Automatic annotation (TrEMBL):
Protein name listed in UniProt: Probable carboxylesterase 6
A GO molecular-function annotation: hydrolase activity
Domain Alpha/beta hydrolase fold-3: 93-321
SUPFAM superfamilies, A to Z: alpha/beta-Hydrolases
Length: 346
């Protein structure tokens, strides 16, 4: 698809995410989430540059080194690194941002601030992958980019080119991580790696210790209770209408929300009992429309004998840790970081 004035952007939570079908038809628009993405019937895509992206610079008091590196010149996929200044080797979090697979960037100011804080407080190295977006690159492009990012890390284990990064990483202690769509990416990469005939052995000597799923973006044709009845304010980071639009734009042509990439419990999804899954922690928000879906997936994983723990952040909604600056959100974000720190330091 050709792009019309494409740009990375920082999400402004004051914008509505409601999908207005009647207005879209009048202007030749195929799909729209107001203020975030507009896909025209002729294939053009617009993503408004609401707030400029930020550079990799971090505050001096955070004691971090941050750098952007292109990890795949063919697809122009790059990553932003957050490396604490310390002498010990630290766990590596390979992180994927949210945005319904259709919007978002590792350079969004909200992600830059959150991940710099997470690296500093949880004492870990973070590689934030700027994967390709739908609808120009529908799934599984984001999953493929995630796998390529892991092979890039493997290459660094045998090279001195990025010693500033590898010298600080314990490459036998790697965690897949992400929020919303990024958590979906982390989950589906874990499924790929752990499936029979997966690429886990090919990534040796990397050692995968777990996955951190923050408000994972899953769906299904049958609605859960929270999807149907969880009232969302106009400034909500994820409404049901927006969720449906993201899935229409990101899934393969002809697929519905019971595709295994969207609904890991649907008929035709990989049997969880047959997959070697790393331990997982699932971070759920009480006021999120995805709450019940997240709990269903957790219960299914436990029933399949997998090591899964979850926590529910009270009184906050989807993406609170990056978009909400209220006192309760700040408190819950600190709790979330503490939960992640405990998980990766075991």
């Amino acid at each position: 698809m050709r792009k019309r004035r494409m740009a990375a952007m920082t999400f402004d939570p004051s914008l509505s995410l409601e999908f207005n079908k009647e207005q879209n038809q009048q202007h030749g628009v195929h799909e729209e989430i107001e203020g975030l993405i507009k896909v025209y019937k002729d294939g053009h895509v617009e993503r408004p540059q609401i707030v400029p992206s930020v550079t990799c610079a971090v505050a001096p008091d955070q004691a971090l080194t941050s750098t952007d590196i292109v990890i795949d010149k063919c697809t122009n996929v790059w990553a932003r690194f957050y490396v604490p200044k310390c002498h010990a080797k630290l766990p590596l979090l390979v992180y994927f941002h949210g945005g319904g697979f259709c919007v978002g960037s590792a350079s969004w100011s909200c992600y830059h601030e959150f991940l710099a804080k997470l690296a500093s407080k949880a004492n870990c190295v973070i590689m934030s992958v700027n994967y390709r977006l739908a609808p120009e690159n529908p799934l599984p492009a984001a999953y493929d980019d995630g796998i390529k990012a892991l092979f890039w890390v493997k290459q660094q284990a045998f090279s001195a080119a990025n010693d500033w990064f590898t010298s600080k990483c314990n490459l036998s202690s790697i965690f897949l991580a992400g929020d919303s769509a990024g958590a979906n990416i982390a989950y589906n990469i874990a499924i790929r790696l752990g499936s029979p005939g997966g690429k886990l052995e090919a990534l040796s000597p990397l050692g995968f210790k777990g996955a951190i799923l923050i408000q994972p973006f899953f769906g299904g044709e049958s609605r859960t209770y929270s999807e149907k009845y969880m009232v969302q304010p106009p400034r909500s980071a994820l409404t049901l209408a927006a969720s449906d639009t993201y899935w229409r734009l990101s899934l393969p042509v002809g697929a519905n929300r019971d595709h295994p990439w969207c609904n890991p419990l649907a008929k035709g999804a990989p049997k969880l009992e047959d997959i070697r899954l790393v331990p997982m922690v699932v971070c759920i928000s009480e006021m999120d429309i995805l709450k019940d879906r997240n709990l269903e997936v957790c219960n299914a994983l436990v029933s399949a004998g997998k090591k899964v723990e979850h926590g529910v952040s009270k009184g906050v909604g989807h993406a609170f840790q990056i978009l909400n600056k209220s006192q309760i959100a700040i408190t819950r974000t600190d709790e979330l970081i503490f939960q992640i720190k405990n998980f990766i330091s075991r």
